[in-house]
């Protein structure tokens, strides 16, 4: 049985690689000075911030994740057309509202993905997550049925996230 050392030079190797590459791309050079500075930043920043990293649940079902991403992209396309029809029509027909969605997921990453998914879909915007992480408050451009909207978000978005992250 091997134990990982408490101090690692690269606690987040992918972040380090990304920092290194982005620094060089931003400066549009591979001059020796920039290579050294990029390497320093790629090592120093993850070392300084690694203590702030909260453990998050990992993805357990990559194929469900891919299906979720494709579904969200499709929903965004469809919602764009629906919102366009609503905006072109008379403004008096719109019924904007705030809706509180009860959350069954508990970890920050899946909650953030759910809130982002809702915000990416035209016609809805995540307004706030309660401090106890039990409610997601959503602003809706045109609310016709609150219970139906809650059921849709829970079934279409929250349920797959629970499956993906096993939470």
Number of strands: 3
Helix content: 55-70%
What's the architecture of the largest domain in CATH terms?
A: 2-Layer Sandwich
Count, helices: 5
Shape descriptor reads elongated
Task: Identify the CATH class of the largest domain.
Answer: Alpha Beta
Query: What Rg, in angstroms, do the CA atoms define?
Result: 21 Å
Identify low-pLDDT runs.
Answer: none
The pLDDT mean sits at 90
CATH topology of the largest domain: Alpha-Beta Plaits
- Main beta sheet: strand number and arrangement? 3 strands, antiparallel
Euclidean distance between termini CA atoms: 29 Å
Order of helices and strands: HHHEHEEH
Read across the widest sheet, the strand sequence of neighbours is 1-3-2
Task: Put the structure in a nutshell.
The chain is mainly α and 167 residues long. The chain has helices spanning 13-27, 32-49, 62-88, 108-120, 146-165; strands at residues 97-102, 124-129, 135-140.
